[in-house]
Amino acid sequence: MTIMHEAAAAAIPGFVEKAPLERYVAPDKPSLIGMSRTELAAALGELGVPPAQRKMRAQQLWHWLYVRGATGFEVMTSVSKELRADLERRFTLARPEVVTEQVSVDGTRKWLLRLPGESDERPHEVECVYIPETGRGTLCISSQVGCTLTCTFCHTGTQRLVRNLTAGEIVGQIMVARDRLGDWPGAQPPEGAIVPTDGGRFVTNIVMMGMGEPLYNFEAVRDALLVVADNEGIAISKRKITVSTSGVVPNIARTGEEIGVMLAVSLHAVRDDLRNELVPLNRKYPIAELLEACRTYPGLTNAKRITFEYVMLKGVNDSLADARALVRLLKGIPAKINLIPFNPWPGAVHACSEWETIERFSEVVFDAGYSAPVRTPRGRDILAACGQLKSATEKLSVRERMALRAMAMTE
Ligand code: SAH
Ligand code: SF4
Predict the structure, then answer these.
(1) Which atom of ligand 2 is nearest to the CA of 212?
(2) Which residue, 102, 91, 111, is CA-closest to 176?
(3) Using one digit for the tens of pLDDT, what is the confidence trace for 115-135?
(4) For residue 69, how far is its CA from the centre of ligand 1 (angstroms)?
(5) Which end of the chain offers a freer environment for a tag, N or C, measured as fewer CB atoms within 10 Å?
(6) 213 lines ligand 2 (CB under 6 A)
(7) Are 138 and 190 in contact (CB under 8 A)?
(8) How far is 169 from 175, CA to CA, in rounded Å?
């Protein structure tokens, strides 16, 4: 079945998919971060904890990991000394390593994170961005190093090195952000940090809009987000977690059924001929199939809408006829429309639409009854505005290395 599917994909003219080039090489001592409760219980079993105690012990660890933010076993006072020593011998609480941290004048923070690579010459790196706003803090995280797809306007799509992140590396990005922001009980934010000031948590929303196509790494993304949403741990509600996809149709229903988070779809064009060019995956899953999957997305209601992302490309997809076609196309789907000014990157063939064009486009969308927020670029001074993420993995210039997309889901 899978083989036929792949063979059929290979036969689609113009659709080229990069095979993941690199594997994940597990460290000798694995980190407990990202394990499910069942995996934690199994890990405890390996250490000789009797079956009757495993569930309770796993629950204790869960609390130390995800409520208290423990970075070492020594602080786990409710766990016996012997068990702590055993845990220490076999496991770590390691998060991805922070290579650089940049802070924008508007408070946006960007971290370059290093993950284990197959060789030391080619470390695997991803970026992660925090966007503080009044009353909430959004973290934009990555699902892959690079991306196997090749959307023409996206810098990540030009990166050759590709590998899937593990569930631990996906959860690890949130742990790093909370560590650096002092977002744990008893911790303090760094001097001068901009964080939501309503007395609540600092990371309140998660968007999977960093590097990679999350629905091409479905199992790891699912397992990670179930850890993140667990209400006895990190406890970020599924309504505050958004997965963005370029349209991997077979995994859209699964996202609703198996994860139950909010969906964003990178539409960007209203006709197949144009979308085939901009988002080559459209050759495999054309607009009609994509929208049918959206229409039947599990849990969809007027209060739980799908966000359609539409990048504004000068002279390509930004006419008023396109705007009218867009609202016709989405008729009957509980939708929000997010217009994204294109963020140029070195070597990009596209340009961003004129501001007046974006305004006129958004009026058509607004008049049709949709709120049409234009995503405000954030973190411009550290090049963390939505646009183009390509990590240092391929020896980029400093400027390119710093370029990265951060999507604030502003409404
Ligand atoms: N692979 C997923 C998620 C990551 S991309 C997806 O494609 O949806 C997150 C969003 O950034 C997508 O809507 C993507 O189309 C958009 N994007 C990519 N490059 C961009 C650029 N240079 N300027 C503006 N938006 C961009
Ligand atoms: Fe991959 Fe999304 Fe970029 Fe397309 S827009 S290349 S799917 S990260």
Answers:
(1) 8
(2) 111
(3) 988 777 777 899 999 999 888
(4) 31
(5) N
(6) yes
(7) no
(8) 10
Tens digit of each residue's pLDDT (9 = 90 or more) over 1-21: 233 334 444 578 778 777 766
pLDDT in tens, 210-233: 999 999 999 999 999 999 999 999
pTM of the model: 0.90
Whole-angstrom distance, CA of residue 242 vs CA of residue 244: 6
CA distance readout (Å), 406 to 34, 54, 173, 322: 23, 40, 14, 26
Distances (CA, A) of 403 to 30, 58, 212, 345, 390: 31, 40, 15, 8, 7
For residue 243, give the nearest of 268, 271, 200, 213 by alpha carbon. 213
Determine the Cα–Cα distance for residues 387 and 199; give it in Å rounded to an integer.
31
Asked if residue 194 has its Cβ within 6 Å of ligand 2, the reply is no
Residue from 154, 267, 375 to probe ligand 1 pocket by mutation (most atoms less than 8 Å from CB): 154
Residue 106, pLDDT above cutoff 90: no
How far does the centroid of ligand 1 lie from the alpha carbon of residue 106, in Å? Answer: 22
Q: Tell me which residue of 190, 209, 200 sits closest to 136, measured CA to CA.
A: 200
CA of 2 to the centre of ligand 2 (A): 23
Please give the positions annotated as active site: 127, 386
Question: Which tokens go with 128?
Answer: 């992660």
Q: Atom of ligand 1 at shortest distance to CA of 264?
A: 8
CA distances from 100 to 97, 209, 400 (A): 9, 20, 14
Residue whose Cα lies nearest atom 25 of ligand 1: it is 387
Whose C-alpha lies nearest to ligand 2, atom 8? 212
